[in-house]
Structures are given as C-alpha cells and as structure tokens.
Amino acid sequence: MNYKRFPLGGLWTNGYLFYDDSGDAFFVDPGGDAQEVFEFAKLNKMKIKAVLLTHGHLDHLAGIEDFIPLVGDAIYISGPDSPLLKQPPEEMQRALGMTSRGAEKFRTVADGDVLTGFAGGFEVKVVATPGHTQGSVCYLIKSGDEQILASGDTLFAQSVGRTDLPGGDERQLMESIIKLSEMPDDLEVLPGHGPTTNIGRERRSNPFWPR
C-alpha cells in the first residue's frame, strides 16, 4: 500500500498521504502548513482528491484551508466533531498558537460508513472510537489484500489518547480500545503522533490494553 507520513504543525501531528499508482491520492489529518505535502504531490504528479479527519482537534486540522482549493467539500469528519471544523474554538487556537478558519463545506461520516472513489482500489471504513473526543474515528484503509488503521489520537504506540480535554470520556475511550482489540494482530496502526505500531504489539505491551 502506498502512503507517506508527514509530521505537520507545531505538535508534529502525523498526516498521511495515501496514493495509487495513477497518482490519485487522499490525505489524513492535515495538522499544519502542508507545503511539503503539495511539493511531494506535484513532484510525483499526484492529484489529492479528499481529506479525512480522525477528529476535530486543531492540531489535526489546522492545515485544512490549504486543501480546500484542491478537494472542495470532499472533507470528511464525524458528525459530533463537525462543529470543531466549522468553527475552531478560539481558546484552542490561542493555547496551541495556531490559527484556522476551518471549513464551511464538508461531509460527515458515521460508524460503519465505507468511503470509496478517492484513489484506485482504496476502500476506507469508518470505525467510531469516541473517548478522546466525542466524534473520534479511526479509518480502516484497504487496498487489495492490504489494510492499515489510521488511529488518530485514539491509539498510540504504548499509549492511548488523553481524555482530560473538553469532550473527552475515559469510559468511552476504554470501550473504543476494546473495539480495536478485536482487530488482527498484524494490522499496522498509523497513529496521530509518534511511531507506527500494530495491534499485536499493543496487545502484548500497551499498559492501557484491556486484559
């Protein structure tokens, strides 16, 4: 599966560009200035057709305005977190030292939705994983026989998302981790921060994993 990681913004949020052999592409979580992404896409003659957001925190969407001319309203976010995209909270902008006008036009997703048409044979299944925010989702991205989980801030290598911010809920997060624990051990996980991992590694050594 073709993808490239781009750490973006002041918190080095992992954004991921997925693309097929013909150059069609989509991007997950533009957390800041995306000039590096656009240069890579131009150099490789790619067309970015959509943006997927794992949740509505500013450090995952601060670069969204740069993508709007390319993707129009093909911006996907869960319904519960959509207000954070439409009007990013000013207090969060001040706290993080980031600014964003968000996006007026976008599309909402819900648990179990399957998204297609972005790039070649890619199929993206929406997995609702509330807890870090009320509308946090993971994206199970499939291409042929391969699949990868973009986990946002729900699951990290050796950790899980924090729940002490507005909209966070520890009980919900633990239920979401139980949901992810049902996935296969060899499933690669691309988190919103830090290194990649897989479900089996987290099952063995993540201290927050359900026992």
Brief digest:
This protein is α/β, with parallel strands linked by helices and 211 residues long. The chain has helices at 35-43, 64-71, 82-86, 90-96, 170-181, 199-205, and strands spanning 3-8, 13-19, 24-28, 47-52, 75-78, 107-109, 114-116, 123-128, 137-143, 146-152, 155-156, 159-160, 188-191, 197-198. It has a six-stranded mixed sheet.
Question: What does the model show?
Answer:
This protein has 211 residues and is α/β, with parallel strands linked by helices. The protein is 23% helix and 30% strand. It has 6 helices and 14 strands. The strands form 3 sheets. The protein has a 6-stranded mixed beta sheet. Strand 4, helix 2 and strand 5 (75-78) form a beta-alpha-beta unit.
Name some characteristics of this structure.
single chain, 211 residues, alpha/beta, six-stranded mixed β-sheet, 6 helices, 23% helix
Binned, the helix content reads 10-25%
Counting H and I runs of at least 4 residues, what is the number of helices?
6
Shape: globular
Weakly predicted, low-confidence segments: none
Binned strand content: 25-35%
Topology of this protein?
Elements: E1 3-8, E2 13-19, E3 24-28, H1 35-43, E4 47-52, H2 64-71, E5 75-78, H3 82-86, H4 90-96, E6 107-109, E7 114-116, E8 123-128, E9 137-143, E10 146-152, E11 155-156, E12 159-160, H5 170-181, E13 188-191, E14 197-198, H6 199-205
